[in-house]
Design a protein that fits this description.
Protein name: Response regulator transcription factor
Distance between the termini: 35 Å
Number of helices: 10
Strand content: 5-15%
Oligomer: single chain
Pfam family, one: GerE
Order of helices and strands: EHEHEHEHEHHHHHH
Radius of gyration: 17 Å
Keywords: DNA-binding, Phosphoprotein, Transcription, Transcription regulation
InterPro entries: CheY-like_superfamily, NreC/VraR/RcsB-like_REC, Sig_transdc_resp-reg_C-effctor, Sig_transdc_resp-reg_receiver, Tscrpt_reg_LuxR_C, WalR-like
Length: about 220
């Protein structure tokens, strides 16, 4: 059973998400929060597997709530999905920096919402390639990059290649197909990269790849995928 916490200041939005998720046998909505502070409190009390987190909420917003959840070692197993629209600009990149595991647009189809929760809960790919291209590439390009992280020196040539593809939004299966590997081998590479870079999840690998200059914004639009 995948335990889900809903955090949104609009009652009707929470009710809609609850209705969609509760119809699934393997999903259980264990709580609802109307603001970021309540979301953090309930995350600590209920230890859900996934938090669906709106960004714009009164008081403590979703960005800071995500940062607090991601920064709490007691909540390492809790994954946060940001609920966003395409006009939130730098909130998106800021959410990744805060520790969000991925994104859903608020007008997503019910089947996509259900799929996203399941994917996030098992720790697999969290950001769809379309969102990576449209959002992450655009906003990461606005951020001043520091010098490459020293940890990158610990990566093998193959791991750097895999990191580039992860940052492009490819799933383990897609990486395996592109590099002619088995999906299990691709998954192993990703796990080792996360360990070496001390990344919380795949979304954090995207941040690291862009900030370290491993991948440049817009590269996928040139037909390199």
């Amino acid at each position: 059973m995948i335990r889900v916490l809903l955090a949104d200041d609009q009652t009707l939005v929470r009710a809609g998400f609850r209705s969609i998720l509760s119809d699934e046998d393997d999903l259980d909505v264990v709580g609802e929060a109307g603001d970021g502070a309540a979301a953090v409190t309930l995350a600590r009390e209920l230890r859900p597997d996934v938090v669906l987190m709106d960004i714009r909420m009164p008081g403590l917003d979703g960005l800071e709530a995500t940062r607090r959840i991601a920064g709490d070692p007691r909540l390492d197993a809790v994954k946060v999905i940001i609920l966003t629209t395409f006009d939130l600009d730098d909130y998106v990149y800021g959410a990744l920096r805060a520790g969000a595991g991925g994104f859903l647009v608020k007008d997503t189809e019910p089947a996509e919402l259900i799929h996203a929760v399941r994917v996030v809960a098992r720790g697999d790919a969290l950001i769809a390639p379309s969102i990576t291209r449209r959002l992450i590439s655009e906003f990461a390009g606005r951020v001043k990059r520091p010098d490459p992280a020293p940890e990158l020196n610990a990566l093998t040539e193959r791991e750097r290649e895999v990191l580039t593809l992860v940052a492009g939004g490819l799933s383990n299966d897609e990486i395996a197909a592109k590099l002619v590997l088995s999906p299990a081998t691709a998954k192993t590479h990703v796990s080792r990269i996360m360990t070496k870079l001390r990344a919380r999840d795949r979304a954090q690998l995207v941040v690291t790849a862009y900030e370290a200059g491993v991948i440049t914004p817009g590269w996928l639009s040139d037909g390199q995928r």
